[in-house]
Amino acid sequence: MPDLLPRARSSQESVFARMSRLAAQHGAVNLGQGFPSGAPPAFLLEAARRAVGTADQYAPPAGLPALRDALGADLGVDGADIVVTTGATEAMGLLAQALYGPDDEVLMLEPVFDIYLPQARLAGATPVTVPLRLTAEGGWTLDLDELRAAVTPRTRALLLNSPHNPTGRVLTREELEAVVTLARQHDLWLISDEVYDELYFEERPTSLRALAPERTFTVGSAGKRLEATGWRVGWVACPPGQAGPVAALRQLASFCAPTPFQVAVAAALPLARQSGFYEGLREGYAARLHLLARGLRDLGAEVFLPGGTYFLMARRPGWEAEVLVEQAGVAVIPGEAFAPSQALPPGLLRLAFCKSAGELEEALARLERFCRSPASHE
Ligand code: GLN
């Protein structure tokens, strides 16, 4: 029997799947993988119930026209520039295939979301990371000179993620303007992973596309916006004229995203916008962020507040992801999972607060018990 290729053999279970598995195994409160523990909004569920049984066959690979139009209206772009994907993960993989290949380099920020590196490598390209550094004040800085210095004649694309997973950092308009200047100077594609676009705690984040529509591919996620991460409905808003080839390439993966969920998301997007759903979401998340942050600080942890996303980073001597899931009964993600090539300050953990207040309180109570136990002092 021939061997699987090295790229298959060296692929590993994702840290998120692994921590969810360990959480289930140890009966832990799961503050690891980022998915909400509550139900999606009723208007989304009702729309899906109506769609199942009436919209059950393939959709066009680029997406149902109704969904492309709804997304176009929501994002302020032409629906013809949208390609609907099976989750934002597929969108990112698709762009890796479409935009870079052997001999190309792609720049991205580190800490880095786990899929970006292997997706670039599968496309044959070399990912090059530029650090976001934790400052003494607990913020994350991007050194624009360092970013400029990382561009080589082989650089083909720059991949940004704002609000940023795992740090929660929101890139400022000034930073994005500098990125656009750099991209124009070197004729780079821009990939902007904006799946947390509606989850922010200060000013609304600037969308990169607004500054460079001619070269920006914006990735979004209905799962993140509408609290249904398992539905696998994501999208790419392409620069004008690029959606056709991207959709053609997209047929080769899952062909189309699940049709009934596309129908439901098309119906839900305008309702979410008009009904103030996102404002409510942010308020709910801000409250849970502060509940968790306060509780962690009371336990002596250092907490790094996010500007967006539903994650915060924290650290405390004696806390390690592997130990917490087994001995405290709380699953989190180790910071190192996002920093394969440069050292992060030791002991950073990512905690998801897209869970109920009850679960957050239970997690804090378990952490408190763990802090008092001899195990935490070993
Ligand atoms: N985005 C999610 C997180 O950061 C995980 C996505 C996944 O597991 N595919 O937790």
From TrEMBL:
<keyword id="KW-0032">Aminotransferase</keyword>
<dbReference type="InterPro" id="IPR015421">
    <property type="entry name" value="PyrdxlP-dep_Trfase_major"/>
</dbReference>
<dbReference type="InterPro" id="IPR015422">
    <property type="entry name" value="PyrdxlP-dep_Trfase_small"/>
</dbReference>
<dbReference type="Pfam" id="PF00155">
    <property type="entry name" value="Aminotran_1_2"/>
</dbReference>
<protein>
    <submittedName>
        <fullName>N-succinyldiaminopimelate aminotransferase DapC</fullName>
    </submittedName>
</protein>
<keyword id="KW-0808">Transferase</keyword>
<dbReference type="InterPro" id="IPR015424">
    <property type="entry name" value="PyrdxlP-dep_Trfase"/>
</dbReference>
<dbReference type="InterPro" id="IPR004839">
    <property type="entry name" value="Aminotransferase_I/II_large"/>
</dbReference>
<dbReference type="InterPro" id="IPR051326">
    <property type="entry name" value="Kynurenine-oxoglutarate_AT"/>
</dbReference>
<dbReference type="GO" id="GO:0008483">
    <property type="term" value="F:transaminase activity"/>
</dbReference>
<keyword id="KW-0663">Pyridoxal phosphate</keyword>
<feature type="domain" description="Aminotransferase class I/classII large">
    <location>
        <begin position="29"/>
        <end position="367"/>
    </location>
</feature>
